[in-house]
From TrEMBL:
<dbReference type="GO" id="GO:0008270">
    <property type="term" value="F:zinc ion binding"/>
</dbReference>
<dbReference type="InterPro" id="IPR024601">
    <property type="entry name" value="Peptidase_M1_pepN_C"/>
</dbReference>
<dbReference type="InterPro" id="IPR045357">
    <property type="entry name" value="Aminopeptidase_N-like_N"/>
</dbReference>
<keyword id="KW-0482">Metalloprotease</keyword>
<dbReference type="InterPro" id="IPR042097">
    <property type="entry name" value="Aminopeptidase_N-like_N_sf"/>
</dbReference>
<dbReference type="Pfam" id="PF11940">
    <property type="entry name" value="DUF3458"/>
</dbReference>
<feature type="domain" description="Peptidase M1 membrane alanine aminopeptidase">
    <location>
        <begin position="230"/>
        <end position="439"/>
    </location>
</feature>
<dbReference type="InterPro" id="IPR037144">
    <property type="entry name" value="Peptidase_M1_pepN_C_sf"/>
</dbReference>
<dbReference type="Pfam" id="PF17900">
    <property type="entry name" value="Peptidase_M1_N"/>
</dbReference>
<keyword id="KW-0378">Hydrolase</keyword>
<feature type="domain" description="Peptidase M1 alanyl aminopeptidase Ig-like fold">
    <location>
        <begin position="447"/>
        <end position="560"/>
    </location>
</feature>
<dbReference type="InterPro" id="IPR001930">
    <property type="entry name" value="Peptidase_M1"/>
</dbReference>
<comment type="similarity">
    <text>Belongs to the peptidase M1 family.</text>
</comment>
<dbReference type="InterPro" id="IPR027268">
    <property type="entry name" value="Peptidase_M4/M1_CTD_sf"/>
</dbReference>
<dbReference type="InterPro" id="IPR035414">
    <property type="entry name" value="Peptidase_M1_pepN_Ig-like"/>
</dbReference>
<dbReference type="InterPro" id="IPR038438">
    <property type="entry name" value="PepN_Ig-like_sf"/>
</dbReference>
<dbReference type="InterPro" id="IPR012779">
    <property type="entry name" value="Peptidase_M1_pepN"/>
</dbReference>
Amino acid sequence: MGTPKEIFLKDYKMPDYYFDTVDLKFLLGEEKTIVNSKITVFPRVEGSKFPLVLNGDDVKLISIKVNNEDLKEDDYVLDSRHLTILSPPTGSFTLEIVNEICPQNNTSLEGLYKSSGNFCTQCEAEGFRKITFYQDRPDIMAKYTCRIEADKSLYPVLLSNGNLIEQGDLEGGKHYALWEDPFKKPSYLFALVAGKLASRDDSFVTRSGRKISLKIWTPAEDVPKTEHAMYSLKAAMKWDEDVFGLEYDLDLFNVVAVPDFNMGAMENKSLNIFNSKLVLASPETASDGDYAAILGVIGHEYFHNWTGNRVTCRDWFQLSLKEGLTVFRDQEFSSDMGSRAVKRIADVSRLRNYQFPQDSGPMAHPVRPHSYIKMDNFYTVTVYEKGAEVVRMYKTLLGSQGFREGMDLYFKRHDGQAVTCEDFYAAMRDANDADFANFLLWYSQAGTPQVKVTSSYNSDGRTFTLKFRQEVPPTPGQAVKEPMFIPVALGLLDSSGNNLGLSSIYHDGVLQSISDNDQPVYSTVLRLTKKEEEFVFTNIPERPVPSLLRGYSAPVRMETDLSDDDLFFLLAYDSDEFNRWEAGQVLARKLMLQLVSDHQHNKTLVLNSKFVEGLRSILTDSSLDKEFIAKAITLPGEGEIMDMMEVADPDAVHAVRTFIRKQLANALKAEFLAAVENNRSSAAYVFNHPELARRALKNTALAYLALLEDAETANLVLNEYKNASNMTDQFAALVAIAQKPGETRDTILADFYAKWQHDYLVVNKWLALQAMSDIPGNIENVKNLLNHKAFDLRNPNKVYSLIGGFCGSTVNFHAKDGSGYEFLGEVVMQLDKINPQVASRMVSAFSRWKRYDEHRQNLAKAQLEKILSANGLSENVFEIASKSLA
Ligand code: ARG
Ligand code: ZN
C-alpha cells in the first residue's frame, strides 16, 4: 500500500456528469451476489467531453454497456478503486454495469453484508462503491428502483427504499420484490434488507390526515421488545410536526434491527437500519439509559428524513450540516419528552468528557474538517456534538421563533438539494435579517475557546462590569486563531438570590438598552466578538453574583473570578437549573484538582466540609427534580479532570475521586439511605420522567453506599440486587457491588451471567462492566473474557463493550507496566484485518498519549509505531495512528 491520499475541501469540484435514474437488480446468492445497475447519465455542461470516473471497491466487473452496447477493452480503465469510461457519448446516455460481490465474506460491515444470516447494507459514507461501480458522492442525487431476487425460504422478507410496487414467486424456490423510491437521493441513503424477519406494525396519521404504515423488523422472537421503539417513532413523528412543521413524506416507514452494525443507526430513506441495541428493550433486559438512548436515536434517524435526506450534504466535509443539526433536533426532542435541564447537563457532560479532549489533541478538527484520509474517521464528537452546539447558538441568538423562521427558509430554498454549511448559515441570517458577525469561524476553527471573565462592582456609579478575554488554542494545522463570536447568556443575582432587572449596558463606551418594551429583563445574551471586551451594566443597586453562560450558551471553557462563596450561592439559588449544577461542578473540579496535587505531594487528603454541606442540602431539597439531584451529587468524570491537568495522572485522579466518594458516603450515609428507602420502584416498570428520576436518585445513592465497609450496607446493596424487578435496578446494584473486589463480587457477576447468557445485549453490559473495572490487575480478567464464548471480535458491540470498556478504565488501561497499551496494540492489529472502522475507533484510545508522563508516553508511542509498521494496515487505522504520532 502506498501512502494513503488525503482529500481536501478546497479541492471540491462539481461533478462532470449527473445521474437521473438508477435501476438496480440484486440476485442474492449463498456464494455470491450479482448486481445489475442501469443508470441514465447526463453531462453537467451540455456538449462537454470528459471521462466518467466511477468508484468501486472490492467489486468484480462482469460486463459494461453504454447505450446498450458492450464496451470494448480499451474503452475503459479498471484499477483497484475506479472504473473509468474514457470517452462516453456526448449528451445523455445509459450505462449498464453487471458486477459480482461477496457479502458473505464482508466482515467490514460496510456495503452489502450478512448479519445473523440476513442480508443488510450500510452505505454511509462511502459504502455504496462496495456494492457496485458508481459516482459515490452525495451531490449525485438520483431516483432509484431496486429489484431483489432471493431464495424464498431463507429470505422471506425483501426490503428496499420507497414503495413496494411488485412482488411475486420465481422458479426454483425463489421470489422477488420491486421497490421504487420517488425521491431523489444520494447513494449513501440506499438500503437493502433480505432475511427472516417479523415486524411490529402500527400506523401514524399525519397532521394533513395521511395514514403512514410503520413497521419495525427483527427476528420473530424479538418483536415483543420493539414496543418502546415504536412508541419513540410515533412520538418523534408528532414532535417534528409540532415543533418544525415537518411531515413524513411517504406512505411507509421501515426500521430494521441488526445485531452486527458498526455505528448506532442509519437514516436510509424510509428504511432505517439500526444496531439492535438501539431498538430492543424490555423492562427486564434494558435500563433507563437504554430506553433514553432508543428514544433519542429513533428520533435522530427519523429527523434525518428532512435534515439529511430531503436536504443533504454537497460533500462529506459538510457532514455537520446534517449531523450537527439532527443531533440538536434529537436533543430538543428528548428534552421535551423528559427534563430539559437534566438533558442539557447530560449533553454538556458528554461534550466535556469526549469532545474537549478531542479538540485539544492530535485529532482536533473543525466542525467542518478541511481534509480527511478516510471519511469514516470524521463521524466524531466534534462534527456531531460540537456541531449541535453551533446550531444551538443560532437558536440562542435568534430565539425559538427566529430559529424556526430560519429553518423554514432553509427548506424552502434547498429541498431536494445537496448543500453546504454556508447555505444553512445564510438561511438563518436572511430569515432574520441578523448580524452574525464572524459566526462562520465556528465551522472552520478547531479548538475549544477559553474565556476568562473578571467582574467588578462600583457602588457609587451603581455599575457592574464584566471583562471578557478570549483565546482559541492552537490545533494541528492552525497555529493562530481569530477571536470567535461567543454568545454569553447571563443573569445577575441579588443578595437574596433573585434575578436583578437589567435595563441597559455600556458596550465599547456606547449605551445600549436591553429592556423589553421599557420593562427590565432578567437575563440577556451578550455577544463577544473580540479578543478583549467589556460590558458595564447600569443601575445595579448592589454587588450581584453573576450567573454566566446560562444553559451553556456556547461550547467554551469559561474561567471566572467567582469565589467559592459565590459558587455555593449559585448552587443554592440560581434560577437557571443548568447553572446550579454547573456551580457545583466548578467547585468539585477545583476541589479535585487541589486534592490531586495534595496526593502527588504525599499530603493527607482532607475533604472541605462546605462541599459536603452543599451536597447535603441538594440531596435533601424536596423541591428539586430527583434526576437533577442525581446529577448534582455526581462528581465530574476522571477524564474531565485529567483533561484539565498539565500532565494527566490517572492514578492520582482515580485515588482522589474514590477518596471523595468514600468521604461523601460516610458523611451523607443517612441521607443516602433515605434516598434508597424512599425511591424504590413500587409498581411495574414505567419509562417516564418521574419514575426514572426516582430510580436515578436511588441508584446513585446506592453506588455511594456500596463503598462503605459495614455489613448493614453490604446487605442492603445485595438485597437491592436480589429484589430488583427491572434491569435498571438490577444492573445498578450489580455495578455498585462490582466496585469492591472480593467473593461477593465474583459470585454476583457469575450469577448475573448465568441468568442472562441467552440475551446478547445483556451479556454485553456484563462484559462492559467488567472491562471498565478499576480493580487492580483487571487486565487478566479482560484477557480471559476475550476467549469467553460470549465474546466475538467480529461483532462491533462486543468489541465496544470489552475493548472499548477497557480503554475507559483509568488505572488499568494506563497501567504503568504498559500491559494495557500492549493489549490494545495487539487487539487493534487483529481487528484491523476484520473491520477497519471498528479498529480505527479502538486505536483512537491512544491518540491522547502525549498528555501523560514520559514513561507512559514512551510505552504508548511504541505501540503506535508498531501498529503503523504492520503489513496491510487499513487507511482508517493509518490515519488515526499517524496523526496521533505527528
Ligand atoms: N448517519 C448516521 C447517523 O445517523 C451515521 C452513519 C455513520 N457511518 C460511518 N461510516 N461512520 O448518525
Ligand atoms: Zn445522524
